[in-house]
Amino acid sequence: MRRDFALEMCKVSKSFGPVQALRCVDFSVRLGEVHALAGENGAGKSTLMNIADGILQPDSGEIRVNGEPVTLRSPLDAQRFGIGLVHQEIALCPDVTVAENIFMAAIATSSKWFTSRRELEMKAQGIMDKLMPIPVTTMVRDLSIAEQQLVEIAKALTLNCKVLILDEPTAALTESEVTTLFGLMNSFRNQGIAQVYISHRMSEIFDICDRITVFRDGQYVGTDNVADVTPQQVVDKLVGRSLEQLFPPKPKEAPDGHPMLSVKDLSDGEVFQDVSFELRDKEILGFAGLIGAGRTEIAETICGLRAHTLGEVTMDGQVIVSDHFADSIDKGIIYLSEDRKGAGLFLDLSIAQNITALDTGLVASGGFLSGAKEARTAKDLGRRVGLKRGSIHNAVATLSGGNQQKVAIARMLAVKPRLVFLDEPTRGVDVGAKAEIYNIVRELADQGTGVVAISSELTELIGLCDRIVVIHEGRLVGEVTGDAMTEERIIQMASGLTVSPASDSPATSELGERN
Amino acid sequence: MQTTKTPLAEATAPSTRSGSRFLRSLLHQREAGLVAIIIVLFIAMSFASPYFLTWPNIKAMLMSFSVEGIVVVGMTVLLIVGGLDLSVGAVVCLSMVVAGQLFLAGLDPWTAGMGGLVASAAVGCGIGLCVTRIGLSHFIASLAAMVIVRGLCMVITGGTPLSLFSLPQSFKFMGQGDIFGMPIVIIIFGVIVIVFDYLLRRATFFRKIIYTGSNEKAAAYAGIRTNRIKFIATVFTSVMAGLAGIIYMARLGSATPSFGVGMELNVIAAAVIGGASLKGGTGSIIGAVLGIALLSIVTSSLILLNVSAYWQEMTKGLILLAAVSFDHILNKYRAR
Fold first, then answer.
1. R_g of chain B computed on alpha carbons
2. pLDDT number for residue A110
3. Measured between beta carbons, which residues in chain B are less than 8 angstroms from residue A337?
4. Where are the beta strands (DSSP E) in A31-143?
5. Number of C-beta neighbours around residue A133 at 10 A
6. Do B1 and A359 touch (CB under 8 A)?
């Protein structure tokens, strides 16, 4: 028995209804190492970590802690074995203080009937200060997203973990906060704590991790010492094929047609200011930026899903004023939500009913729906997007992530859009479906529909788009095209570190200094 | 944009295939299960009491839930949009006493009835505005409305029942008469059920109700004006309750300020037994009608079997619990 493994997960499988999230995967972490778990969205990383934390139960497979087989029925069980998980999504109670949130888990395991508020606050402050000196009596709802993320991390630190799992902890953090976190992780490594680090940022993985395990489509691909591989090799493993095969070829020369969409000095008065850009005919434009930078809000505002205070949007030479998304749909402007389950699809309704949701008038006459017409439309569009399905009468909830996204795209195609905003178009979608979606998007652009793609996956933006604008804290800070579209350059601009020479935003130099 | 309203293709689905699909979908539907239970109940009761399967008894049972059934239709639509209305019992009463008072003041009964409907619609508008403008939940807004409207009924009547014996025969006919042996009340109810069941399945407006209830955010992101839809559904429910109140008035020839107390819970129970969910998005008119039919048939059966009234109430609760639990267990099983 190898005692140096803090956590071993062997031949673990898990499925959700029709979706096989994990197929017989292996994963193990040594004491005192930082082990990166890499994979695209939907590769099964979070599922595996939820199993390690007892939130989900595996369908089959074995979990060993310090060499002993264990069954983890709940997060409480996991805590008893010293496993702590920092969730990707922030799971805090907004209406209580930071201190109470930090000790939420510890209180659950405490055998005492009463807790002393002062003692709790003192301990909490001690832990919080290691990360950022936030007063622990602050209500969590008053914190920024980055601060909440740090509280989430502090929560796991109260548990005296032997195994600490960090699921995309840096998604909302700035550079300096990431540095603080890495310092903390290094000290844990010296204390012999096993750490699992999940991140999409290749540079972070190469900065802090000792070994890296790659998952793809719910399967184990391989484990390497970080010192032995290059970031490019890891990316190739993640994607499972070279990027050229994944993305459709771009037009030889950048489209230089007349602008179909032009946005001037758009502001919403809270999230973004003075946003100006143009979208040319047959062009795919990318929006890059960190989470919370305002990418989604800009798209939603142009689509009439949010109110704007200043600025002008012109499409095909006409000024557009949309107070409601319904008006925008009439003009052919469609927004594809990043939150497929929350704001995109009607999970309980059938595929056909979902596809016709944008304009039920298409399949109705005189206010009455025609079932046959609806079925026909759904079948045609389903075929066009390559939907693999049993029956168009099945509920969307029964489909895999990739097929659900195809339904969302088919719905968009149903109204023959003039301009589409695709927000995280391949989130939680398997690689095969990704390639198909990219092809559909390129086809759409070739046929003259304006496409704006928003994504947190830089490989996706770089592979798909003709041009990328970068947004930092609500302002456009730069633009890249052609060979200048590299991950490093975009990340730098997105974190407000450098100013692109092509930038024309007056605010950029100021932002550059602030960080 | 060119919102091409041209049909993509003239649909010609072979009728045989849609027929077999119909049969298959029947197996999965709540309605089929309820019909089966009702049939079993009928067979069992016909052994227990020879009187049960006679036309007078069946007619009496139909009569007993027909008017309340109209309220169930309204409530089902509201549940599908994700709302809830606790004030329907009070609104039934309000419609009744407003119409009664207007009639006693000298208006002709039909105009007085319209007055009752307008009062009901006003309550619906009030709840709808509270929900869509202020952002209250349907539960809270309609709870407040229930108490307010109940008080209003007392104010209007001075707390005593209105005696409406002088209602003209032509008006009472709506509640008491029959055509070829079929009571008018049952005919009105049947027409309402068929019309709204069809609309819910086919009309684009009602489809928007389903979208809104299924996932309000997604509906908004599909360009549906969800607040407008919720408002209309809320008013619709109140108007259906008002209509029931007018029919009750014609049938009973009186208007009591305490009429319809507790009706809202019976109505919600029926809709839920029929497949509606308090989370919105699901439910059917036919299902809800079968739900209230089941509740009503069980009650009459227990009366025929001389079971005490206390036990009858308990049985209703158990049926509700069984129906909803069955659904949840089935859904979990299907999700595997």
1. 21
2. 64
3. 218, 221
4. 34-38, 60-65, 68-70, 83-86
5. 9
6. no
A17–B7 CB contact, under 8 Å: no
The residue among B111, B115, B109 whose CA lies nearest residue B171 is: B109
A426, A437 contact by CB (below 8 A): yes
Beta bridge partners of A36: A197, A212
Residue A343 belongs to what H/E stretch?
Answer: none
Which tokens in the block code for residue A188? 């844990």
Nearest C-alpha of chain B: how many angstroms from A293?
21
Phi, psi of B238 (to 5 degrees): -65, -40
Is the CB of B303 inside 8 Å of chain A's CB atoms?
no
Region of A44 (left: φ > 0; alpha: ψ -120 to 50; beta: rest) is: left
Band of pLDDT at residue A108, cut at 50, 70 and 90: low
Q: Indicate the residue type of B50.
A: P
Question: Which tokens belong to B85?
Answer: 């209305």
Q: Which of A116, A35, A120, A49 is nearest to A88 (CA)?
A: A49
Contact A373 B7 (CB under 8 A): yes
Contacts of A353 in chain B (CB under 8 A): 207, 210-211
Amino acid at residue number A276: S
Contacts of A450 in chain B (CB under 8 A): none
User: Is pLDDT above 60 for B23?
Assistant: no
Flag whether the pTM goes above 0.80.
no
State ipTM.
0.71
Per-residue pLDDT band at B256 (split at 50, 70, 90): very high
B280–A contact, CB cutoff 8 A: no
The residues, any chain, with a CB within 8 Å of residue A321's CB and separated by 6 or more, are: none
d(CA A356, CA A329): 13
Determine, for residues A416 and B4 on separate chains, whether the beta-carbon distance falls below 8 Å. Answer: yes
Q: Beta strands A467-472 and B178-179: pairing type?
A: unpaired
Contacts of B203 in chain A (CB under 8 A): 367-369
Interchain contact, B215 vs A377, CB within 8 Å:
no
> CB-based contact (8 Å) between B221 and chain A?
yes
CA separation for the pair A324, B273 (Å, rounded): 37
B203, A369 contact by CB (below 8 A): yes
